[in-house]
């Protein structure tokens, strides 16, 4: 069968599965359970461990009443926690991940938070000073419209 004729086949369970971050992770955990998914400095996770960690994070987001279309912001470098957020946020009922660029200053971070309508904001410890200033900026703007 040629590739052109295969494209003419109607999509069904036998020949098609949508690939999303969530379905990718489930499939990787099922088929590559003990294979390495992440190596970061001294940290090493398998696909099963990554899936389990992401499920726990998604459950935590749900316990914070995160729902479909809610925005979850994160300010973190390329660390395992940010990697896990890319899976866990959509796992939490279709929430939206807003990964904020770590090179931005407090004023820009505040602007992004304001416009995103983030319901939850995760911050890597090394960016706490910038975030404190960003939140002060937000409070000042909201008190003086």
TrEMBL record:
Taxonomic superkingdom: Eukaryota
Keyword ATP-binding in record: yes
Listed Pfam families: AMP-binding (PF00501)
Membership in a protein family: Belongs to the ATP-dependent AMP-binding enzyme family.
Compartments where found: Cytoplasm, Cytosol
Single Gene Ontology MF annotation: ATP binding
InterPro entries attached to this UniProt entry: AMP-dep_synth/lig_dom
Annotated keywords: ATP-binding, Ligase, Nucleotide-binding
Gene3D superfamilies assigned to the protein according to its UniProt record, in alphabetical order: 3.40.50.980
Organism annotation: Rubus argutus (Southern blackberry)
Entries under PANTHER family matching the protein: ACYL-ACTIVATING ENZYME, BUTYRATE--COA LIGASE AAE11, PEROXISOMAL
GO cellular component terms attached to this protein's record: cytosol
Protein name: AMP-dependent synthetase/ligase domain-containing protein
Chain ranges of the AMP-dependent synthetase/ligase domain: 26-135
Keyword Thylakoid carried by entry: no
């Amino acid at each position: 069968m040629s590739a052109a004729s295969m494209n003419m086949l109607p999509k069904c369970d036998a020949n098609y599965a949508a690939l999303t971050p969530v379905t990718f992770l489930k499939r990787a955990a099922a088929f590559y359970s003990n294979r390495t998914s992440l190596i970061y400095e001294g940290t090493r996770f398998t696909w099963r461990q990554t899936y389990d960690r992401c499920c726990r994070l998604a459950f935590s987001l749900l316990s914070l009443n995160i729902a479909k279309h809610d925005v979850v912001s994160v300010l973190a470098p390329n660390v395992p926690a940010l990697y896990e957020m890319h899976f866990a946020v959509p796992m939490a009922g279709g929430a939206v991940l807003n990964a904020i660029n770590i090179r931005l200053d407090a004023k820009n971070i505040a602007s992004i938070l304001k416009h995103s309508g983030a319901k939850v904001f995760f911050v890597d410890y090394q960016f706490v000073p910038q975030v404190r200033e960003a939140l002060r900026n937000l409070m000042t703007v909201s008190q003086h419209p």
